[in-house]
């Protein structure tokens, strides 16, 4: 393999870390993990990813002199539960993970969030390494230190801020990712362009096929996304402000996930985000904030990449405008009845818009639903 | 009530807080909690303590304009479980605790550890207030930010460092505490004298009855203990060094708790600590580190207060020397086979002693067991 791309995340208090991006990183992961110190490095993964990459990662860790082990959970969002969290913690303890040892999250965002939360709370905190294997995890969830699980009362309501000590994004692992998961992750890639980097969105329009096919554009795109996210996280780690911009498209997206019962057969997160991005731009245009032309460009590009961009595209439907509003009101971005949206003045020009009137949203959604 | 005693805990990064100590603090708790900001303050308690003080605390919070609520768990160590943790988190969410709101732990160390961990992880961290109602919680567990639950694989293995924003130690609540729990907490009080404050141990010998009966000595003792613990915590929050001194008597004590199956009918934590303190001093004397006279004084005083001080005093027995060694080896204070003890050069002169030989410990324990 060629040298990996590197993004440094300069957090304070000795918590800075590197994100390495390249094809084939898993084969050499052991030496990089061993360099962090510790005697054991125990892997948490899901059964699908473990069967593909678990042995290679374990072998690499053990070759580097680390005692290793594997805790595998069922694939899918349902594993971000209290019960699986307890099983992962007990599994790590059974593998005798001590305070100086490492937890290695090998998998998509589900495994990263779950293993990260277990690491945050095992013995009141052990260090962890992210080895993200889905596009979404490589460009988003593995960076920034948000970890957690779901409660029956809502997604990601339980968790901790716990930064990884290292992120190894082996982009060759995406070769085995399903087309659908690849597209879903791509919605988050495009999101970074839409938030604050119009030039990157242009580049995506020209080069997106290389990301899917595994050309050098893939590594480049992952690095650009990680750099963008790392910058936001360093400036606003706890989401008191700017970090909320990363939720562009997510207020609508989360509502759609909720209304489809988090059934991935109907809608996965990135598909909800794709629809949400298109809606955020059309809503911005309707409010006179953003050129209608930009809203059109966003929807066209996402559709070209095979992503849904309308409420009608939700399999089984998503209810009426009030059901959508209700589902949005349960989101954390709601304060005292008024909705906070991330809106845009154009591609690459997003901003936090608090106090958006419920009536304006309802009218917009009604038109979107009627436009079938 | 008279003005409460105050101990300030000067932690960095805006995490400093006050410990207030006095009779009747619950009645005025609402105003002090409301001063921290937030709209809701939801209480976590156990059923015993909730029935005694829950209504008064709720009324005080609501009088101060806070929306309140109560999540009650079964009393006892068994509530420091994954399942009860999940139930507490979901209970707090059902009471609509938002990021700016407060969790109030009303109870002994079990409730404080459990509610603190729920607060540390609810929405990735909400603020919490400790209202400790057992002597142990007032002098030890409510101060210092260690929160957590037990795993089937061991005590306190899951948790987080999460400092309270305020501690309200209403010493009048101890009037309803059982004699046995009072004595158990008193072992931790005496511990502070033994660790580093010979003058306080002298004072305890003279004034311990006032602590039990609820005289002004009680508030004074709680304040002295909190000041001592706060000092250690500020200097070594994450237990990289000095904080380990607080474990004086606990290596033996934890082993005894383990060997009695954590059955409080047989042994509660403070009783294990009392035996452990006596053993730590006798072991120090045997190693020629500490005058035998000091070891005798320690055991005599604890016995006078009604606490056990020998292995023979463990109801149902505690196994032989090897069983004890095994149980100690499972403790976190074991590194690479060698045992780390907290030993003493005399009353008020404890120190961390790493690398104590297993054989020396075994011989000591055999003599202790044979000395029936
Ligand atoms: N922590 C954060 O900041 C953050 C940010 C965004 C999303 N998330 C979370 O991420 C989760 C979604 O992540 P995801 O989309 O990666 O889901 P996921 O982890 O469930 O992975 C999707 C599917 O792809 C499979 N898979 C993963 N890598 C593979 C590979 N290389 N080859 C073949 N199959 C592979 C998995 O087994 C799974 O079935 C959600 O729970 C979401 O809340 C977290
Ligand atoms: N976090 C820390 O730093 C730390 C330090 C030491 C101990 N601990 C933990 O503390 C726990 C032990 O605490 P504990 O001894 O307070 O046990 P506890 O919380 O179980 O309380 C003991 C009993 O006393 C009852 N009780 C409490 N206050 C009462 C009152 N005012 N009137 C009547 N009954 C009352 C409770 O209902 C319970 O049955 C253990 O789990 C231990 O691990 C934590
Ligand atoms: Zn997302
Ligand atoms: Zn103790």
Automatic annotation (TrEMBL), chains A, B:
Residues of the 3-dehydroquinate synthase N-terminal domain: 71-183
Residues that, per the record, bind NAD(+): 109-113, 133-134, 146, 155, 173-176
Listed cofactors: NAD(+); Co(2+); Zn(2+)
Database matches in InterPro entries: Dehydroquinate_synthase, DHQ_synth_AroB, DHQ_synth_fam, DHQS/DOIS_N, DHQS_C
Protein name per UniProt: 3-dehydroquinate synthase
Pathway(s) annotated for this protein in UniProt: Metabolic intermediate biosynthesis; chorismate biosynthesis; chorismate from D-erythrose 4-phosphate and phosphoenolpyruvate: step 2/7
Entry's EC annotation: 4.2.3.4
Annotated PANTHER family: 3-DEHYDROQUINATE SYNTHASE, 3-DEHYDROQUINATE SYNTHASE, CHLOROPLASTIC
Pfam families: DHQ_synthase, DHQS_C
Family: Belongs to the sugar phosphate cyclases superfamily. Dehydroquinate synthase family.
Main subcellular location of this protein, as a coarse class: cytoplasm
The keyword Magnesium is assigned to this record: no
Compartments, as annotated in UniProt: Cytoplasm
């Amino acid at each position: 393999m060629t040298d990996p791309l590197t993004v440094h995340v300069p957090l304070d208090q000795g918590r800075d870390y590197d994100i390495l991006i390249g094809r084939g990183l898993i084969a050499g992961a052991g030496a990089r993990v061993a360099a962090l110190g510790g005697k054991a490095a125990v892997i948490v993964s899901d059964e699908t990813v473990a069967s593909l990459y678990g042995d290679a990662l374990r072998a690499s860790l053990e070759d580097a002199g680390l005692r290793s082990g594997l805790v595998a959970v069922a694939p899918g969002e349902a594993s971000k539960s209290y019960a699986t969290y307890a099983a992962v913690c007990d599994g790590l303890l059974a593998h005798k993970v001590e305070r100086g040892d490492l937890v290695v999250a090998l998998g998509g965002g589900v495994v990263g969030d779950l293993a990260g939360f277990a690491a945050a709370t095992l013995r009141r905190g052990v260090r962890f390494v992210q080895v993200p294997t889905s596009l979404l995890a490589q460009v988003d969830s593995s960076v920034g230190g948000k970890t957690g699980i779901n409660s029956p009362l809502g997604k990601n309501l339980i968790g901790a801020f716990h930064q990884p000590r290292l992120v190894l994004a082996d982009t060759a692992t995406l070769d085995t990712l399903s087309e659908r998961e690849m597209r879903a992750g791509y919605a988050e890639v495009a999101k970074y362009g839409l938030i604050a980097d119009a030039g990157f969105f242009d580049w995506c329009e020209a080069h997106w096929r290389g990301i899917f096919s595994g050309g050098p554009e893939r590594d480049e795109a992952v690095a650009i996304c990680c750099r963008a996210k790392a910058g936001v996280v360093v400036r606003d780690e706890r989401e008191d402000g700017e970090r909320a911009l990363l939720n562009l498209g997510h207020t609508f997206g989360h509502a759609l996930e909720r209304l489809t019962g988090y059934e991935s057969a109907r809608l996965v997160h990135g598909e909800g985000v794709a629809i949400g991005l298109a809606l955020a731009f059309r809503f911005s245009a309707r409010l006179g904030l953003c050129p209608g032309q930009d809203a059109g460009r966003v929807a066209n590009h996402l559709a070209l990449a095979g992503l849904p961009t309308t409420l009608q595209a939700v399999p089984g439907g998503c209810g009426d405008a009030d059901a959508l509003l209700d589902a949005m009101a349960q989101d954390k971005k709601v304060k005292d009845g008024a909705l906070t949206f991330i809106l845009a003045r154009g591609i690459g020009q997003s901003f936090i818009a608090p106090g958006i009137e419920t009536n304006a949203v309802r009218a917009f959604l009604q038109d979107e639903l009627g436009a079938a």
